[in-house]
């Protein structure tokens, strides 16, 4: 080519950039849009602040020479990687490009992802993965598998050091599904996202089962049934907005405190409606989220795993401008009973909050652990123990509000004083006991009831006697298991004051590698 001028070299560079940015070309981009999906670059543009994204490794190329790959040009090797700012805070991210070889991941593609994961941990900033790809590139064989292994290894290194968020905006199948599963939060786009280890065609061939892609691994399947999905997005834009909202509650790394926002509402306001929010009948359900929203700043609550194990509610809110994690029994579903799925759901959330210095506020109205042969056979003892372990191991500020029922082992599992709660607050409606009055009366007063002429009247008399003596917060308060009994209308003021007084607490534990959680 001889000696070229500077302008020729710059023009060549510009042409290369233009070609790379077109990804798989106009036809494939149109196909992507026809499916209601954004391209990889459009997703990057929609999540990062304008003009803040720095693309890294744009000119990466695969080096596979098998099965015709030597003739294939794969722009950016099918993944956009780099860093930028999300609401002014630095974040590293990758976005798989489905228009380039179906977003399949090969050695260099995976190396790009590993490079930015390494930078995220060095810089102490969040890491986001936008997944839209067909899994490992078959032509690259063990090199592609090795790359996935290196990503999984880094997911584990980043865990508990920087927040990791996975957005599933298309297919994410086979081994590729394990990287999102290792991250802190999984956001799936309705109708576009698919996650499974074994796809429908293989299932049919091996087991004879017939099922659609969405029924097997769609967003609602994983949101309701498996618990793999934490948030369901209506479309790609919604997924990016959920990510931004989620990041606003989190610190950039485990050595920072969560961001504090100024609140424009009256800090210590009373809310008279809380005095009348509970039904008079203790067996009557109500929605715990109505209480949560009346207590937190501006009534804003970002619920996590809304559709999975709905008998417990978890999520993020702010109180007096501070980020908090909320764990709450939900009487509106299965009376708020604890079971295997609620134990898993809440335990992982508690551990996430502890990793990232987010105080935990627990709202308690729990009748106990769910009885049943299936629960026992499936390991309710092992799973329920996870909650005990997670709360006991958490050293962040922990505030517990007992609203109504707090019975038996479930009372302990919902962060009682004995599980390390720094402040336990109760409403006058709180009932703290080994079990409900009816069950207790049948056991304690069985002989008297059986010998009575009017067994039903005697039973009711003993139930009322038990309620008078135990179905209240005063016995527990007398023994210092409750710090404060408060008027419900004053709940926000008491939680704010409690949080401000314990926010700088230090909880020193014996040195060890890590505990052995019952998994």
From TrEMBL:
CC annotations in GO: acetyl-CoA carboxylase complex
InterPro entries per record: AccD/PCCB, AcCoA_carboxyl_beta, ClpP/crotonase-like_dom_sf, COA_CT_C, COA_CT_N
GO biological process: carbon fixation
Keywords, ordered alphabetically: Transferase
GO MF terms, alphabetically ordered: acetyl-CoA carboxylase activity; propionyl-CoA carboxylase activity; transferase activity
CoA carboxyltransferase C-terminal domain mapped to chain residues: 270-501
Gene3D superfamilies, per database record: 2-enoyl-CoA Hydratase, Chain A, domain 1
Chain ranges of the CoA carboxyltransferase N-terminal domain: 6-262
Record family assignment: Belongs to the AccD/PCCB family.
The protein's name in its UniProt record: Methylmalonyl-CoA carboxyltransferase
Organism per entry: Muiribacterium halophilum
